[in-house]
Amino acid sequence: MEVRYKEVKCMAKTMIKKEAQSLIDKLPDDATWDDLMREIYVRQAIESGMEDSKTGKIKDVHELRKKYGFDD
Asked: Is residue 12 part of a domain?
């Protein structure tokens, strides 16, 4: 079991490294550190939201609007 966990963890690191390289390659030559950080942040936020969606950790917008007094 421990060996399998290490394999998955290693694959995840490799994938992250490849994805980071892909983000860098897509940036213009005059990109700044802020540009790179923004791209990484956006990518992480999207992936986090997708994971929340898959695991049911989301709320309906109408539910939230009602909760905070913003009726449709």
From this structure: yes
